[in-house]
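Researcher: Predict the fold of HNH nuclease domain-containing protein.
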Amino acid sequence: MDNHNHLMAGIQLQRTLQRYLASGKSLKDKRKLLWYMETRPSLRDAAPIIRLEEIEPRLELIAVIQAAYHESPCTAQRDPDGDFQFTALQLVYLLVIPMEHLRGISATPMVPYIPYLKLENYLSFMVLGRLPDDAIINRGTASSVPPDDTHTLSTGSEMPIDEDAKERAKCIARDGGVCVLTGAAYPEVCHIVPFEINATQAGLAHYREQFSHLTRLLGKESHAQVIGLLDSGLGCSNKAWNMLCLHPTLRDWWRKCLIGLKYLGMIPFSHQVGYHAIQLQFYWMPRGHDISPQDPAQPDRDMIQEMLQIIEQDDDPITESQKYSSSLLETGQVFSLNMPAEDAVKMKLMIDIQWANARLAAMSGLSDNWERLNRRPRVLNVDGWLEDRWGC
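Model: Structure tokens for HNH nuclease domain-containing protein follow.
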């Protein structure tokens, strides 16, 4: 029966293709179909978004950090009984950063300053391109920067630079003029790391303030490579290597970290000297769990398991995605993009940054509702914060 079904499906596919070719389709349409068939995604086993074999060693190191803070004179971020509690976002950060960085944090006398990690500002800026209201525009000068509907950075008189039309055209040509995930026509060009982070001097200044968070999220090799890549000048990342073609709905999900792409590797492209094929793996990110980024989170296996859940909703993106693709988008699908070797190395870094940020956002509950960033933590001792900030 299976052989018969395979045979009938093959015959139907052949007939459908013959009708398509005989229907007077343009050369452009035929090339798009050929491109999609040649670059169709393969499916590979997807590794968990955090290393499961590292959970126990990480929990041990996190317990050391928690105990060190508990024994310190600092009083911020403690519950009514005086016990220190991580926020969900802080806990995810300690689960995502490379092990060598976590070991370094656990061994440093700076442990009491864990509560002051400004991860909310970092994620809002590095994922959405939003500056906080108290962003430092120039050294020693504070300025209020209200977000607008497009999240464009502004310092009042400063106007952001324009996006580069030539680089957008390069991206569209490289991606075949279709969504790289679904093959849908008429995609939008999406920046991997937000254009806004270096579209203005304000953005550049704030990026440099956030650089330490970024480098802790990356491994040592990436740390060295990313220096100067995103802050060498206005619009320095407004390049095709920081862009992807995505269906408009998928672009929105990408920005919210409902979906993610993980770098798998790159290989020389056999059809063009000096080019590499960069391989990216698609993930549906955790969502739907009852976790809020600024609420207390107990560092144990039960909490981690909840953070990794995907709880489907009535208007779930997985079901919605079928409208934009001939097949269901699945975690594990692998896509390849061909580009100059130098660009492939830079895109790899952009993907690594976004992958780290997407895991932070999704596991901490941000991907469902970014407005949660505006909430205060459930446990917040303001007097203790002031004492710690200036007295510890």
